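WP5 quarterly update. Target: CLUMA_CG005700, isoform A. Source organism: Clunio marinus. Length: 630 aa.
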Amino acid sequence: MDIALEKKLSGFKQIALEKLENILLTILGKKDLVISPDLIRILDSFANMTWLKSKGFDRIFKLSSSPPPKTKVLVFMIQADLITFKYVCDQISFLKDKHSSFDPGEVLKDFHIIVIPNLFFTFQNLLETEGLHGIVELHRFSWDFIKIDRNLLSLELPQVFKEVFVRNDKSLLSSIASSLRIFNIVHGRPKFIVSYGENSDKILSMVSRMESMRKSSAKEKQDFPDFHAMIVMDRNKDFPSCLLTPVTYSGLMVELFETKAGILSIENESNKNKSGKINILNVEKDQMNDEKDIKTLRMCGNSDEIYTTNKYRHFSEVVNLIKWESKNLEGEKNKYSRDMNIEQMKEFVEKNLPKVAAQKKILYKHLVICEKIVQEMSGNFERQQNIEDTILRNDNKKQILNYIHEQLYTNAHQYNILCLICLLHICVGGLSSDEVNKFVGGYLNTFGHKHLEMFQGLMKAKLFPDINQVSSKNLIGIAQSTIPKKTQFQIHAGKLKMIPGDEIGSTAGPPMACPSYVFNGNFIPLVVQLASALLQAKDATELLSKVGHLEQLKLTGSFIGDDLEPFKDAVLSNLKILPIKPRTLFIFIVGGVTYAETAACSLIESLTGSTIVLASDQITSGIDLMKAAS
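Structure tokens (predicted):
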């Protein structure tokens, strides 16, 4: 990637600082900050403690059940969640009543709430209901894009999938549109913008309206934007890329541990695999309790050379490389010799030892991560991969269902087992009412009937069959389950060549000719095939032969106009847009992006000599999607 472009991508940090500073300048005097715990790491990624102190903050508290001491102006920072907002209002009411000296007529307001990313009308109504109107001042703040790695950006809005795809609440789409509008200001509006999905269409329409309402800058209208093309795609257009088990190091990291703003939590409490198991299967290991300074790892190449080298490698290869790195580091440490003179010893202690100590600390974190991945996933990993391949190819539905029920009763994991049944529903379909009822009954018996509502959420997200409709198709479902045939998913995946042929197969290391290596040779993410088609197409005929059959695909951009047009018609009427030169592509996925997709796009970037940057509202995994439905 060009150094100038990389610096621009880092520039969103400065934009976030300036936006926050503009809010804080309106809050006079000394103040204390009360911040929601899930925002701390995100805030720290662009505004550290020193910067906050310089803006007048004295103390910083985590939002908890106990209201903070009221000695100064209090500033609350929370996500745009009505329940959390009501919780803060209750604390403010308590503090207001407690301090009899409180003067509601003061010009300087004592309470401020910064809401991220949107300020909804219901918040103002709630203030009036609670009797806090005129006492509390509301502020809207959005940090836009957080740079996670060289080619990865995130809005860090984990509630998007739940709100948009499960609850069908589109209010957060305006925040995404606003951030993409900022992106266009910084990098210029791409000439070739592809939209795939209902929510993507709405976001791009909002961006177009924002740009038409405000005078576009010369930067946005420039002939040479930083990114020549853009893809905006809905997550529900490719659920398998979330539900399948990745084999890359970074993919397995996020599959097992929680991550926030590019910081991986390595503590037992954040272990997704342990948290999803029933208690009798959760056996704690003594050696895991000895971790003192092994709590987090920054998933960024700038601070961790081991991660940079291995993040997109096959995990089996990474384990051996890290073992070799450990031996190599031990050799560096043993270079000290009693035969050294005083000057040599001094140089070794001052220069070599601190470097070795820092590398050893990072290496130990990676060893802990690898150990936990092996402990949690190795026992059933190969068989799981085979079953996922069977699901994708619809080879043996009976074998798949037997495996799922076996896992449900012998190696039960609350979310992993849901990923499998959802993958089966999407790829194979035709589940009979008996099959659905048997699974739901077994799941509720294992994990408790409190999870019944979760299946409704999965159904709304189209990850699980509608039980009411399945029951009326019982006989059809049974007939389909006995006759393997190509499903709608396989026809769709076949046209896009998302399921590689047997000649590619699976290998122990990354076959650098095919991005399917991220799923052990089983599957190529949809966004990768779209990106590859756009970047390599020499003319309209070639591009349409690969993706022209996608009905919901639409096109806009400075070459096309402000309106979204059907992809096929727009390409044929604007033949000059191909081939795409320079090969620079920005991809935004609404509902979360996976590290498997990032790794596969990185390979396409290398093979095509292009620049690809991915972004989303969060870095996600199959388990995260399952949690969002609950």
